[in-house]
Amino acid sequence: MVPHPLIRLGRRVALVMLASAAVAAAPLRAEDQFIVMASTTSTEQSGLFPHLLPAFTKATGIEVRVVAVGTGQALDIGRRGDADVLFVHDKAAEEQFVAQGWGLPRRDVMYNDFVLVGPKADPAGVHGQDIVAALTKLSSSSSTFLSRGDKSGTHAAELRYWKLAGIDGPAGKVAHYQECGCGMGPALNIAASSGAYVLSDRGTWLNFRNRADMAILVEGDRRLFNQYGVIVVNPAKHPSVKRELAQRFADWVTSAEGQATIAAYRINGEQLFFPDATR
What we know:
Elements: H1 5-25, E1 34-39, H2 41-45, H3 48-60, E2 63-68, H4 71-80, E3 85-88, H5 91-99, E4 107-119, H6 131-139, E5 145-147, H7 153-164, E6 177-179, H8 184-194, E7 197-201, H9 202-207, E8 214-218, E9 225-232, H10 243-253, H11 256-263, E10 266-267, E11 270-271, E12 274-275
Parallel strand pairs: 1-2, 1-3, 5-6, 5-7
Antiparallel strand pairs: 3-9, 4-7, 4-8, 4-9, 4-12, 10-11
């Protein structure tokens, strides 16, 4: 007896559904064993990632493809679902990102600090350990302050320091305030070639080669603390997120092995980042 056409159609649909389920349940192929990480530029331009990520890949077989942008842009990439995991350094913005449902719980990973860099001659007379006093002097000097101006974690920190100095939004208020809309490395290059002052994370500064006559002028202020965190993008918002692989990175970078790898990264014997994950 020949089955009714609707019965045959029903069997075909069932087979397609079973095949789709089998594909969905199948393990990732070797060529799919990668994640996309949106990260602050400082983790790459400091040289940390060329040291850290090969160790993760060796331990897990998972490749990490990095999109290095400012933290604000990295969070936006996460909101769009164009990354699996974020490695960033603006804790307030990160916590808001998670509270809004875009990310799974964030974890502290490591810290370093910000430094104010400028000409060794220090024409604005800012040298010391007080970042707020330094910006106050810069606001009334003829020296140029160069801002990242890119909504990065460093830019967010800089704006907080200006606000503490009594200037909420220095653009248009401070005579010689300029924005480059660029990453930390390019900002340092511009500052070095123009004799400007600039706020930098210490890691990128230590890895920066084109210093000209630039030097650290302000450091040691406890307000210059710079915390980094890791967040897996929420797959409930974006089903394309590779949650399992991304979680393996978050787990590894906060594990004893990952933390030791971070601590081992040094330039000329100086440690750039200090692991502080709590598991």
